[in-house]
Amino acid sequence: MALTIWVGNLSYQRLLVPAAVAAVPVQTGAAIPPDMPSDFPAYPGAKVIGSLRGGPEPNARGVEWLTPDAPNHVYDFYRAALRQSPWKVLASVPYPIGTISCMHERNPLLSCSLTVGKAKSGKTVIVFQYAPISEAGG
After folding, report:
1. Beta bridge partners of residue 29, listed in sequence order
2. What pTM does this model have?
3. Of 7, 11, 88, 131, whose Cβ has the fewest other Cβ atoms within 10 Å?
4. What does the alpha-carbon distance between residue 97 and residue 17 come to, in Å, rounded to a whole number?
5. Per-residue confidence in pLDDT tens, the chain, 138 aa
6. Is residue 137 in some structural domain?
7. What is the CATH number of the domain that holds 70?
8. 47 neighbors 67 (Cβ within 8 angstroms)
9. What pairs with residue 117 in β-bridges?
């Protein structure tokens, strides 16, 4: 639950309002984290613009891509791709900002969320965030 709230806050900050000062440390970079699931579907032609680690969930990781394609095309791509094994869509909401909650079948203790929306530049931002969840349900 906490990752979902964190993902929502980050996504809305990135897509709707200027970035706020973080209350918790977040490390950023422009490379895909080495522990990102290697079978995560890449959107064709999207460029990595950032990555992050930490925040309210210390184990959380995230990657941001940018593409000139329309948000609805990107959202439809991911909604279909994340329904293919080893991924499973748990929930998807297309509007106002496309959000997909998913899990990895071979690693069910990995909480994942994808957000797709229009950036102020007019391009589409894709944000994939993931974190291990504890076996105790948290």
Report:
1. 51
2. 0.77
3. 88
4. 13
5. 444 444 444 444 444 333 333 444 556 777 888 888 999 999 999 999 999 887 777 788 899 999 999 999 999 999 999 999 999 999 999 988 999 999 999 888 888 999 999 999 999 999 999 987 765 444
6. no
7. 3.30.310
8. yes
9. 125
Q: Give the total number of structural domains in the chain.
A: 1
Q: Which residue has the tokens 């504890």?
A: 134
The Cβ of residue 79 has, within 10 Å, a number of other Cβ atoms equal to 17
**Which tokens in the block code for residue 111?**
């909480």
Instruction: Give residue 53's identity as a one-letter amino acid code.
Output: R
